[in-house]
Amino acid sequence: MSCTHDHNCEDHECSSDWSLYKHIDLSKVSALNESVSGSVKSVFKAWEQRLHSSGEHLESNEGDPELLVFVPFTSDVKIKSISIVGGPDGRSPSKLRVFINREGIDFSDAESMQAVQEWELAENLQGVLEYQTRYSRFQSVGNMTLHFPESFGGDTTQIHYIGFKGEATQLKRDVVATIVYEIRPNPSDHKTKSETGGGFSQVE
């Protein structure tokens, strides 16, 4: 389901609604079938910059419009809606399929797996459409894989912006891992010099 903005962005702080880009682990974002390696990272930016590409965008290889985009987050997030700004002349993606908390998905996996949700997209060149998620399914999202199977007839698929509306938890994913590690006692932390030839005994 898609919807348009029901307010004037000059009166409403849209950038705060679409601020989850700050929680994307950009260094680990990747894409399959991108024509320019690493170009996928340019599409994740502030809401107010969604129509400003400066020539940078994500585009599939010529003659093959399929794209697969992996997006990891630095903390678990809850996603309410997604916005996609595509390219002109039939090069916008026409469909989106999303997988959650599954790493290492390739095109073969994407074609055979059941997506968490699918959308038929519109050509959203002005960035005014957003696609609502089935919110109960988009809780505790650590990473997402976005599958764009086809364009609107263009030889390539071109994407200028991908945005997520929602909220992030306060606990970073690396912090969670540290806490789990710390609550497991490490015997080596309690050894004294007797076990290394120093004459002291292990603390009981």
Description:
This protein has 204 residues and is mainly beta. Helix content is 10%, strand content 32%. The protein has helices at 14-17, 107-112, 173-182; strands at residues 2-4, 30-32, 58-59, 67-86, 95-100, 117-120, 129-132, 141-148, 158-172. Strands 1, 2, 3, 4, 5, 6, 7, 8 and 9 form a 9-stranded antiparallel beta sheet that branches. The protein is globular, with a radius of gyration of 22 Å. The termini are far apart. Mean pLDDT is 84; it is low at 5-12 and 190-204.
Which structural class is indicated by helix and strand composition? mainly beta
- The string of secondary-structure elements, in order, is EHEEEEHEEEEH
Strand content: 25-35%
Low-confidence stretches: 5-12, 190-204
> What is the radius of gyration?
22 Å
> What is the overall number of helices?
3
Q: What can be said about the biggest beta sheet?
A: 9 strands, antiparallel
Helix content class: under 10%
Number of DSSP-assigned strands:
9
